[in-house]
Write a structure and sequence with these properties.
This protein has about 650 residues and is of the alpha/beta class. The chain contains 31 helices and 7 strands.
Length: about 650
């Protein structure tokens, strides 16, 4: 019963099982082919061949069945499919269970006797048969587990199964002296096979059958048996678990683990399946470790496969791990972020009721500057999940993100999403988040030309935050207000808001926010022609960025400084700045920034060449054109004005 119950338990977690009845003298598993409640195709089962037939074929015809499952002479002729009950876990579907019986019902005893009549002839063929039979099963690629039921001992079939076929050996033994002594002799023989590089790699010892009575000193008997094994073999063979004795079920192959899962036998068989998983690296712990290691190494496909395997065994554990993983991915950037994006599909599939995976996927796509259509698709799916599950907080967060995304394309839709998020946050009494939603709505109103609505929204948000004393959010709101004013060319108001934000940022010691405020002030100075003031602000920002080690911010500041040099005609300094920024953007995999920087370099080279040409310095103009073309050739991109520069580089007058 141990093989049968373990097989069904593993098949119910999506694994593909083969049970081989190698107990040819007393084939218990083979009796299953008469059970119409277990056999998928009773007619086919009644005609199936088995182990004895495989042995006969090898002994007398010197060949094994074909590894193909279909067609005459294929492995399918020796297999009986068993019914695997439906499971509610969608990740565990696809499990299967096949039986290779001891042999067909017709003339079984005669065919078995004939094998033993020729046992001397077969003795020399044991190893080549075993090697070929093992490879036959492996080459079929049909099974994740192959469980072989063989009698403990050194009979022909037991010898073959134990010495040549198995990777892991599970030995069941009683606790009386006769059983212990016989099993010790067997284990001593198995240990000696290591010198021949044969036998199992791992051995698990089970006590079975063990009667369970209230007054039965079971642990004492287990300790004595273990001591006796040590005495007889010189090795420690601890009992992994005990299989209790049940008088009524001891003579039948019954699915105790499924029909009476809370019985002593049912619990023991579940424990046995768990121990077997640990032996072969298929346990919950193994798949958690594999998923974690794969994620650390950014092997997305392996991580997803590990999560799927974990979900088949323990869906709740898989959901817990999926949520942990999802929460860590948002911190990634560049190519690392791009590489893990497909993992969100797996996380959402495993944890299908949680909209946060889709929300985080959308945020990562926005960070990577992917098309809005991709980002909005994730957000739409997340919103549907949150609405279906009545998760108001998640709905508000998705709507807020949606408003943020739409701010660069559809201002009216952005304002509508921000208003909806504000209403939800207000209902939830989350004043800080309500203020954030007001800011988003105000930015959208400003872009729509509704200056009065924008200013009213910003004012309401600032009032809420000042009431709460949330200086950090006040600063963020002032930054947004300044940006809105700048876009409306309200430069005085924008400078006033940024000055207030900068004072708060310095008070809070928020260096990233200080750098952002300095960038904002530098942009206002640039727009108003105050290039010296802009350079001073950017120089201070660059010092902060370098102190923080923020390469993305450093490259952005270098770009802004180079743009100032270009505007002022300092082309050499501008070129050096653009190229330094370009190198960092390349390291970070920032494709959008790389494209923008190359365009700026193109403008710089073109302006310099035209300036030199206008001054009548043809030779210098030609050199500038050639340098521009060579630079873009090295970058493997085509200059937007390549034809003009090419003509200029070859000009003679």
């Amino acid at each position: 019963m141990a093989v049968l119950n373990t097989g069904f338990l593993l098949a119910l977690t999506g694994r593909r099982l083969l049970l081989v009845d190698f107990d040819l003298e007393a084939p218990g598993l083979t009796r299953l082919i008469q059970r119409q409640d277990l056999v998928a195709n009773p007619q086919q089962a009644s005609q199936a061949s088995g182990v004895v037939d495989v042995l006969h074929q090898y002994l007398y015809e010197k060949q094994l069945p074909k590894s193909t499952t279909e067609g005459e002479g294929g492995l399918r002729e020796f297999l009986v499919e068993l019914k695997v009950p439906e499971t509610k876990n969608p990740f565990a579907r696809g499990g299967s269970l096949h039986l290779m019986p001891a042999g067909g019902e017709e003339d079984y005893e005669t065919r078995l006797e004939r094998l033993y009549m020729r046992s001397e002839a077969f003795a020399s063929l044991r190893k080549p048969f075993s090697v070929g039979f093992r490879q036959l099963l492996l080459d079929s690629k049909l099974f994740d587990y192959i469980l072989i039921d063989a009698r403990t001992g050194l009979s022909d079939e037991g010898y073959i199964a134990t010495k040549f076929l198995c990777d892991q050996l599970i030995v069941l033994t009683g606790l009386n002296e006769q059983n212990v002594a016989g099993t010790a002799t067997f284990l001593t023989k198995v240990a000696a096979w290591k010198e021949e590089k044969c036998g199992p790699r791992l051995i698990m010892l089970l006590a079975s059958p063990v009667p369970e009575y209230e007054d039965d000193p079971k642990q004492d008997r287990l300790d004595k048996a273990q001591s006796r094994f040590k005495e007889l073999t010189g090795e420690d063979y601890p009992f992994a678990l005990t299989i209790p004795y049940h008088p009524r079920l001891s003579l039948y192959e019954e699915l105790v683990a499924l029909r009476w899962p809370q019985s002593g036998l049912g619990r023991a068989y579940r424990a046995l399946a768990g121990n077997l998983r640990q032996m072969v690296g298929d346990s919950v712990r193994d798949w958690v470790q594999r998923a974690t290691d794969s994620l650390r190494e950014h092997k997305v496909r392996e991580c997803a496969q590990s999560l799927d395997n974990l979900a088949a065994i323990d869906r709740e554990q898989a959901i817990t791990l999926a949520r942990q993983i999802s929460g860590t991915l948002g911190a990634l950037s560049g190519e690392q972020a791009r590489s893990v994006l497909p993992l969100f599909e797996c996380l959402s599939r495993i944890d299908s009721d949680d909209p946060l995976h889709l929300l985080r996927s959308a945020r990562l796509k926005r960070k990577l500057s992917l098309p809005n259509s991709q980002i909005l698709y994730d957000l739409d799916q997340a919103l549907q999940l949150a609405d279906k599950a009545k998760k108001t907080t998640d709905m508000a967060a998705v709507l807020e993100e949606r408003a943020e995304v739409l701010l660069n394309s559809d201002y009216a839709a952005a304002r509508a999403a921000a208003v909806a998020a504000f209403d939800l946050y207000r209902r939830l009494q989350q004043k800080e988040k309500a203020a954030d939603a007001l800011v988003l709505g105000s930015r959208a109103s400003g872009s729509l030309g509704d200056r009065a609505g924008a200013r009213q929204g910003f004012a309401e948000a600032l009032a809420i935050l000042r009431e709460l004393g949330d200086k950090r959010r006040i600063s963020v709101t002032l930054h947004s207000l300044a940006e809105s004013d700048r876009l409306q060319r309200e430069y005085v108001a924008a400078r006033r808001a940024l000055a207030q934000a900068l004072d708060l940022d310095r008070e809070l010691g928020d260096k990233r926010a200080i750098s952002a405020a300095l960038h904002g002030l530098a942009e206002l100075d640039r727009l108003q022609g105050s290039y010296d003031a802009a350079r001073r602000a950017l120089a201070e920002a660059l010092g902060i960025d370098r102190e923080l080690g923020d390469r993305r911010a450093i490259s952005a500041t270098l770009y802004s400084l180079a743009e100032l040099d270009r505007l002022r005609g300092n082309y050499d300094a501008g070129q050096r700045g653009f190229e330094e920024a370009l190198a960092i953007f390349g390291d970070l995999g920032e494709k959008h920034a790389i494209s923008a920087t190359l365009n700026s370099l193109a403008d710089l080279h073109l302006e310099r060449a035209r300036l030199l040409l206008g001054e009548g310095n043809l030779e210098s103009a030609r050199e500038a054109a050639r340098a521009a073309l060579e630079f873009f050739r090295q970058q493997q991109v085509r200059h937007p004005h390549a034809d003009y520069l090419d003509q200029l580089a070859q000009a003679t007058r």
